[in-house]
Amino acid sequence: MSTAGRAPWGYAGWWNLGAGFVCSVVLVGSTIYSFGLYIIPFSETFGLGRAQANVGMMILTMAMAVWSPLVGSLLDRVSAPALMAGGGVMLGIGLCTTASAPSLGGVGSAIAGPVALGVAAAGPLGVGTVVARWFRRRRGRALGMVAVSTAAGGFVMTQLGAYLILRFGWQQALAITGVGGACVVAALALLFIRSHPTEADLRAGGEVGDEGDPELAPGAAPDWPTGRLVATRNFWLIATGAGLLLASDGAILSSKIP
């Protein structure tokens, strides 16, 4: 039997999924889910009210909305491991800059720039794109696991963040999280993430049968240029529904810890 598509311990798609899962845990857990941990110490440092401090979450989510279409386009054109590793580095730069910024303008710029770009590149968007390429028959199961990674990040990274804040203070905690997260994400992306499987890879992993991969056939994938996409009713229904859900979720996440 051909061993194409197999890592030394099994189908390479599962290694892509596992590495991507951890990347998403780190990226989402250390930003969106851990945001509330920093509200009180950050507010005390800069003399802010709760509503003013929560603007940081608004900046993060809106900036991710701006960066995500660019990242999605790049995922179709460049190496996914390099892009995701770069996202990890951006996270580290952004969190370290936030920790050392002397003004609110510097904090906002760091959140809107490298932090949001890092989450978009190496978080669920990048991970889900790669995983969808490696799974056909078990795609729903694989993407369901990707979805779980964000909640896992909320559990793991908030525990770590709370410990670091109590031990070192919020600024050092952010810097440690940024440097550690950048190293973990970059290493996993470069070692285990692969941009595209071949048909032989998918066949060896049991994702397609003898008939081959229908998605690789000429003309099988529909063409969705941006203009056609934004003119589609279903796109706006999905985007609006998801946006309302995530907006309410973000409000809860930023407020429940304080």
Describe the protein in words:
- With about 260 residues, the chain is mainly α.
- Helices cover about 75% and strands about 0% of the residues.
- The protein contains 12 helices and 2 strands; from the N terminus they run ββαααααααααααα.
Give a quick rundown of the structure.
The protein has 258 residues and is an all-alpha fold.
Low-confidence parts, pLDDT < 50 over ≥5 residues? 1-8
Task: Identify the strand order in the major beta sheet.
Answer: 1-2
How many strands appear in the DSSP assignment?
A: 2
Q: Could you give a short account of the major beta sheet?
A: 2 strands, antiparallel
Tertiary shape: globular
Q: What portion of residues is helical?
A: over 70%
Rg, nearest Å: 19 Å
- Distance between termini? 57 Å
Estimate the strand proportion.
under 5%
* Strand and helix order: EEHHHHHHHHHHHH
